[in-house]
Amino acid sequence: MLKYTIRRILGMIPMLLLISIVVFSLALSMPGDPFGGEIDPNNTDPEYIEKMREEAGLNDPVHVQYARWIANFVQGDFGESTRYKMPVSELIAERMPNTIFLGVTSLIITYILAFAMGMYAGRKPYTAGDNFIGGLNYLGLAIPSYIAGVFAIYFFSFKLGWFPFSGSIDIRLTEGTLEWYLSRLHHVFLPAVVLGALGTASYTQFLRNDIIESSRKDYVRTARAKGTPESKIYNKHILRNSIIPLITFLGFDIVTLISGAIITEAIFTYPGIGQLFLDSINSRDFPVIMTLTMMFSFLVLFGNMVADLLYGIVDPRIRVD
Amino acid sequence: MAELADKTNLHIKPQKRMSPWAVARRKFMKNKLAMVSLFFLMTISILSFLAPYITTADISRVNIGSMSLEPSAEHWFGTDKSGRDVFTRLLYGGRVSLLVGISCTMLIIMFGTLIGALAGFFGGLVDTMLMRFTDFILNFPLLVFVIVLNAVFFGKLGGVPVLIAVISVLGWGGVARLVRSKILSEKENEYILSAISIGSRPSKVILKHLIPNVLSTIIVQATITFAAMIVVESGLSYLGFGVPAETPSWGNMLSASREPDVLQNMPWIWIPPALTLIITILSINFIGEGIKDALNPKSLR
Predict the structure, then answer these.
(1) N or C: which end of chain B has fewer CB within 10 A?
(2) CATH code for B33-51+78-294?
(3) Inter-chain touch A144–B152, beta carbons under 8 Å
(4) Domain locations in chain A?
């Protein structure tokens, strides 16, 4: 297993290099200068611009530019944002907590919803309640998050006034107080529900089917024969076995959360990484675009790897070689 | 096994010598949900593609005299902030959204099937190379790279064809993987071995023997892809990185709701495209489920 893990991690490196080449070529072919951030836009003297370009290394051959960029990148120097005039790493560090908070909250919501619905549907399959949950899941799979988000804002923010429709915090509050934390929770709740509802359907269906399957197994019959209460059989014996395969979903959740976060943050104007990405595209902030694109790709690679590794850990029958 | 097959046949009671496709069609026709969905989808498609003949209103002209009107007899779904009729735009938007969805689906299915079939049939080095390439493509987060590519082509190339190309180029990986795995198990059958042993060319074996036998999987995958592509197109357009803003599409119409004023006070502008999208996606999903059921010889319905 350890050997396999190390091989998978090493295998990511060539993939990341290839992706970095693609990202770099894309940045080069974008209109405008990808690395022109240091040039003062108000100074249009051609000689000055030429001197600055020379100093910034923009006249070097492409492979030299790429080598310099990737060398800096690996060392954690992502360049400076042309729009915010600050290092990209600081900019991302500033936005990151919001996105992580959103992601974690939405995962918790997914788990709560999926466990409640999956356990009920698995225990009482083919009843009205099960069919209702099945129908809900079908809707959840079919309705895109942006439509759900728009409706959520319309009903819960505008019509009922329960939740704020934008931002991540009430700016009048001081950091660290109880109200501040509550306000953050209040702001993140609606986007997190919309984002979390995305993954709920697959979790619920999996849990339901697994519980139904397990309930026919021998160890359950033995437990019944011994006179174990029905609730204990379902909540302890079966659930413990059914939870394990669910862990493998975690890797794919990372991938889902990335694209989900971009759209959800845009709907709720929630200041996270996704919003930063869209803003930087609109303002042609190349260092930020390149860094975030690399980061998203890395996370997808990482998520897929985690999923594969978890498969191996959860089910030792899956041969890893 | 033979006994079991006889028993299941008793339940369906097929007429003599019905082809598998005829059996599937009969099963599909009996599926009410799928038929209703098919009816919905056909209606929406026909209305959209006949839009120029149904309505005479101009979709592009800004009409200052009738801005943000509520629904009335004259404007069924009201007008948007530029005074354009929402119903007319909905029909025209359907053309673009469905066109993007169908084109992307066809390209993705064709390319994915080609790569998957080649990799699965030849195996060995060809398989390794093609699947490495597929893995590479699959590692790009679709949404992120479509947005970045859109920024690259900004101003130079643009519009619907580029969007279709970009989505298709990044989207075929999943289909290729699926088709490969199906071909891998299908080619172990003896009829493939006999086809090869009598000297059939690989192209003939793939096209005449393998593809028809995995076609049911491909068709089901196509319906899933179709729904997914409509979601992708409208999602991108909603964010402002999809179909150009001047072309009406369901996603573009929905993006009007990003203004809080429109979202709060003029629901007639964004609710029609939102509901149309939901109904369309649900219909496609139900049709897909229906086809899956109908093509599955084990299902008794």
Answers:
(1) N
(2) 1.10.3720.10
(3) no
(4) 2-74, 96-318
Q: Which residue of A has its CA nearest to B280?
A: A142
pLDDT in tens, A275-309: 889 888 888 788 888 888 888 888 888 888 888 88
Helix (H, G, I), strand (E, B) or coil at B190: helix
User: Can you read off the two tokens belonging to residue B15?
Assistant: 């007429």
Residues from A in contact with B at Cβ < 8 Å: 15, 18-19, 22-23, 26, 29-31, 138-139, 141-144, 146-147, 150-151, 153-154, 158, 165-166, 255, 258-259, 262-263, 266-267, 277-278, 281-282, 284, 289, 292-293, 296-297, 300-301, 304
Enumerate the residues of chain A whose CB falls inside 8 A of the CB of residue B270: 150
Vertex B160 angle, CA A300 and B158, to 5°: 85
% of chain B with per-residue pLDDT over 70: 82
Confidence of residue B103 (pLDDT cuts 50, 70, 90): very high
Place of tokens 């429109």: B262
Residue B301's pLDDT is what?
A: 47
The Cα of A218 is separated from the nearest Cα of chain B by a number of Å equal to 25
Q: By the CB < 8 Å criterion, does B151 face chain A?
A: yes
End-to-end CA distance of chain B: 20
Phi, psi torsion values for A80, nearest 5 degrees: -120, 135
For A96-318, which CATH superfamily applies? MetI-like (1.10.3720.10)
pLDDT at A256 over 90: no
